[in-house]
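re: ur question from the group chat, yeah i did fold both. here u go
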Amino acid sequence: PFFKFFVIIMYFVSVSSAFAQTDSLANKSYDELVKLYRSTAGNKPAAAKIYITKAYELVSEGNDTRKIAKTLYGISYANYLLTNNIKALEDLENVILLLLGEQKKSSGLLFQAYNLKGTILTDIGKNSEALDAYLKAKIYAREGKKIRNEILASTNIAFIKKEHKDFKEAIRIFKENLELLKKLTVPASQKVKDEVYQLANIADAYLRMGEMTSENYTKEARNYNGIGFKKCSKKDDTVSYAFLLINEVRILYQEGKINESIALATETEHLGIANQDENLLCTVYVFLGKNYAKLKNYKQAIAFLEKGNEIILTSEKKYYIERLLVKELSKSYTALGDIEKGQKYFEKYAKLVETELEEDIKVIKEVYIRNDIAELREELKELKAIMLSEKRQKQRLYYIVGILVLLAVTGIIWYQKNAQKLKKRITSVLQKVNELENEQVSKKPSSNSISEKVTDTKAALLLQKLQKFEEEKVYLLPDCSLSFVAEHLDSNTSYVSNVINNYKNKSFKTYITELRINTALIQLKNDARLHSYTIKAIAEEFGFKRQETFSKAFKQHTGIYPSQYLKKIRNQA
């Protein structure tokens, strides 16, 4: 992309400029070089790297371990800004080794080293290793009694939870951080920046939760994003401002305000190019693509989506948005009739979902064991210390431990009972399916038999029509409403409803739902083609417009969810 070419050109310009100054650095002191590094790190990382490298050369011959570690950390940070991630990680390992070897450890610098290590590992998609680094950063933040550092570490841990779809827990941590920031004594401008970042993350988590589920969290996202916009300064905090902008693009999209979303996304694209922010640009291109796909302008949608795809393919970073991007590419290419490309991207999407699921389970488990339980253990430790100073400390501690054990045992028993109940329910459903199949092969009631049983001639005629309606499976049509059926049977809604109530002993809605679910049970068992369908596709196959409605009806009718039944059927196949 153009902006990458621009970055490379600027990189060589800054390097050339810095090398031109190398001769003039010979007489600079350590403090002067560090000052030059700090003034250029944000906008001229190549030059900053030269300054801090020169400072490192000055101190490396001496015995001041802390200064050596500080300058080496500076080199690592410059390499990170230049996306030399492997070299940055190597330098950080040396920083950590130097600091851990000291008798009096620098908790502040160790926090910085582990926090930066976690940030780099997160960027390249190694979230399990990043979690380990953030947990260590949190330990040193607490040792140094730096509340803001602890908030930063907690924010990064919450970010990993968010990346791996533990959205509610991530939101809880971000909200806790907002409360902690109120008590923090730091410059007002810094506190506002920290608050805005937490608010943007909360909005983002709600949006992601909405994208992953059938629930709508747009209202919550708009609330927190709106508060963030009121506090954020576009001039002083461009990173968070861009974060809030892309959230707004997504909110407008979810609200169906497509043209407004496109306009704001285009404005945000300019900001991303100006700041060389690949992550922002990638998200912009995905939502421009989604917006144009909504307008059925699939060619334009593909053009933007492929721009985003190019960023992902040429970057060392891992992007959560990749799954949404390839899914949209699959749908857009298919809509244009390019089935081959549509299938290619669908297969990539399916693989990404599978990989993410495995990684989500692994990482969230690690977060729970190594962070959540560790925090609980820390709280129990503090509680024990308080109780030791009280008269009845032992009894109270045993009481708490007893409750924890009881909860654990109760949880295990509950799980085992639920597993047994589920097994019985599935067996019962399979027996019901066999009965339904037997009913299908047995002789169907004739028109005469219906007439013999039903004395009301008009009702008998309608029941005969309903029998044919069932045989032809007209109920599988998605628009099979009471008015549709009444028209189909040459009757009216009131009479059809009364006949079904009186002779079928159920409401019209229950009647149609049971027919659909019974048909689904039989066909899912016998039609191997359906085994590869998603729950959404299965729902549509049997006349349901929404996956949630199908799942709810299936559970109400059988006592189990469609996914549980499908899993059993697949295992038997």
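okk and heres the other one u asked abt
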Amino acid sequence: MIDNNKIVIGISCFFAFYIELFLEAREYYFTGEYSALLNNQISLDVLLRLCLLFVLCLMLMGVFVRFSKKFYALGRHRFLAGTILVAFCTYFELSGSSLGVWAGYLQHNISMVSDLMDIGTVWGIPRAIRSDEWAVFTPFNLSQEFNDYKSVTEIIRGVNTDVTTTYGLACYALVTLFRPFLIGYMIFGSAKGLAFFWASRTVFLFLVSYEFGKMLTKKHVHLSWAYAIAITFSQTIQWWYSINGLLEMFLFGQLAIVLWDWLIHTDNRWKRVVISLGMIECAGGFIFTLYPPQEILLGYIFAVLFIIFCLMHWDEIRKKDFFVFVFSLILFLFISICIIYGSRDVFFTLMHTEYPGNRIETGGDEDVRTLFYWIISLFTPVDEDRISAISNASDAASFYSLFPMGLMLSVYGMIKKKKADALSLGIIILEVIFLLFSFVGFSEKMAKLTLLSYSLTVRVVIIVGFLELLLLFRAISLQENTALKSKMSYVKCGCALVFSFFAAYLIHDAGSTSCHVIWMLAILTSSVVVSVIRDKKKFAYIFSIIVVLSGVHVNPVQVGIDVIEDDVLVETIGEIVKEDQDATWVVLDSGYPILNLPIMAGAKTVNCTNVYPNLELWSSFDADREYSCAYNRYAHIIIQMTEEEQEKFVVLGKDLIVVNLTEEQVKSIGATYVLSSKQYENDFEKIAEVEEYYIYKIN
């Protein structure tokens, strides 16, 4: 029998161990060595710290249980609370960016907590693996302040570059109407704009997920809150928070269905006008994320859910509702055509790149064990380097879906009631299709016909986790609530433990953590969650607390962008740019991410990350187009200056290339300034030296 006191004690134990592991993970960040529990060792100091953390967590849990009804009552004021939270974070410049990683590249000594505090990281661990965020997307947006937020910039690539397409930056353009969270940059500037971007997306996703959760769970309040938390603070969302538009896909996809539900239940003319505009915003916000690997998959899901919800409420839909829908669709298509036409050349270039344009996926190569990675995914924030069954913590991150529990409960519920649930059936059909694609594979023709050729199997598995989450919450909401007070409770707990052991066994040798405590917590945690599935309220409480605790520890709490703005090298580049604004820069003999450093000072940089290829420039070194497949891609470009002719283009990775150029060829690029970590003895004029970096002027 599992009573409330045992649950409180159990959750407090989980809290204590998790926070201890996170503190040890932060110590590992400084020293590079595992210690204490992460190294399967325990000492008196660790035991005392665990006891202290347990007592503190027990007190917090006591407060939560005592005032839980009032916490849920805050739901009536959730929109006001969300607005206040966004305003607070924006004013104090609080974000989850990992900009702090730049400190190591800029020769700052980061060896203790106070050093992180000095660069603005007040809590957490800057995630180097999320380089798409701190080394590309955020620097790109910071560079826009020097471009006055125009839709075309020369700062990126050193030539005219459309910033409305790949990565979609803050700019005054029609497409920005569909990227509302970037508006903060243009209103508040870079530091507060970054904070607004992070805070507003979190709050909006949570609020929208709650509304969608009410539709999914038949307005069960506790399950709706738990669902909102399961989405917003999932490892998937948090590890992929700032790039590729994954969060926007979930936000706008769910919101479109919620708005449609509101539309068919209101007669107020002005509300209907606002809702129709909101539906247009959702369509644009979803489609113009421009990341097909997940956009196609989620497009299928939300389209199916939309159709099913329409069928479920068919009697409530009126002719004027269809009129509003058709009008919104026509207006959206008109706006979309204008946007696409304005960037048609860029879209054409992107579609004909070697990567990602010519990528074709037929599936069938995914490891079945990745479906069970949810059991260990909660602990990616505390053992990032070792928890990886795929390639890195980001790819290993998944929804806490309890796969295949959602599928099993849904099928069992429909068999028991001898009645099919249309929503569950639709989700199951999609899940089967996605699983077949991932583990069996489609023919190339079928993959192209279904558009799944644009996806990646590793992304498909993540989306299957989302489908399992939908099935899980739907199945729990449809079942009868049963408190665990019978002898069967022990049987259910035993079955849950066996299920968790099985899931852990499947992935234990897939390159995952070797920390015994993490495995113990993973197994026990999932066992408890599974065992209380029949009690909706307890399930919601336990599930929510576990997911929140792990989710909030993925990204750091970063205050401002002083780590960039106050850096001597960035300031030096900025001073040169002010005196010679039209000059072009090139980064030599320095790798990624340094090649993206000058743009944060407003320097027009030839070989910063090329979001689409500068074919005119790179083909000038390849008259026969022998290496076109190397540079015709999205790429981080490392230029090395060589004394003799070498192979011009070398592909190190799908998005990383090296260009070997002689001194004369470097000069032919047309750059005026050089940033390098190497000293040159040639006719380059050294004009500045900062730490281990040198700035030259090409005469």
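fwiw on the second one: The chain has a mean pLDDT of 90. The radius of gyration is 26 Å. idk if thats what u expected
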